[in-house]
Amino acid sequence: MTRCLLGIDPGASGAIAFYFPSHPERVAVEDMPIAAGEVDAVNLARRVAAMAPDLVFLERVNAMPGQGVSSTFKFGRAYGVVLGVIGAAALPLHLVTPAKWKGHLRLSSDKEEARALALRLFPACADHFKRKKDHGRAEAALIARYGAETMRLIGGGA
C-alpha cells in the first residue's frame, strides 16, 4: 500500500510536497531547501528520509529557449542534485513533463492557475499557497496529486 508520495517542482525556486492518499485533502509542502543559493542536498535528503515516501514524481525539465547559459547551468545543477538525492535514497522515480501533469489536471502554463487549483484541492492547507510566490509549492503539491490519480490511489477530481 502506498502511504506517501513525494511531488517535486525542481530548482532553487521549486518545492517539495508529501502527499498522503489516505487523506487526499491534505498535503505537507515546503520550499526547496536552499543553502548558499543552491539546492541543499543534505537537508533535502534529511526531509525525504524523515517523510519516507513510497514513490517520487519529479517534473522532467529541459533547458528553455532564450534562457541564459549561466541560469541554464544553475537550473541543471539543481535538477541533478534532486535526482542524486532520490537515487541515493533508492526511491522509485517517475519523471513527468509539465505538459503531461498539467494536461491531466486541465491546467495551462499559468502559474496562478496552478496556485488556484491547489487552494481548491487542499483547503485545509491553504496557508501554504496564499502568496503569489507560492506557485512552486502549488506545483509540487499538484505533481504529487497527479501521481496519486494516475496510480489510481485516489479518484480524479481536479
From TrEMBL:
Q: Which GO terms describe its molecular function?
A: crossover junction DNA endonuclease activity; nucleic acid binding
User: Which sequence ranges are marked TM in the entry?
Assistant: none
The record, for CDD domains, names: MOC1
Q: Which Gene3D superfamilies match?
A: Ribonuclease H-like superfamily/Ribonuclease H
Task: Indicate what this protein is called per its UniProt record.
Answer: Blr4528 protein
Q: Which organism is it from?
A: Bradyrhizobium diazoefficiens (strain JCM 10833 / BCRC 13528 / IAM 13628 / NBRC 14792 / USDA 110)
